[in-house]
Amino acid sequence: MGGPKVIIDPEEGRRLVDEYGREALFLTPVDNKYVMELLKHLGIRDVHDFLDSDKAAMFIRDFKS
Question: Does the pTM of the predicted model rise above 0.70?
Answer without folding.
Answer: no
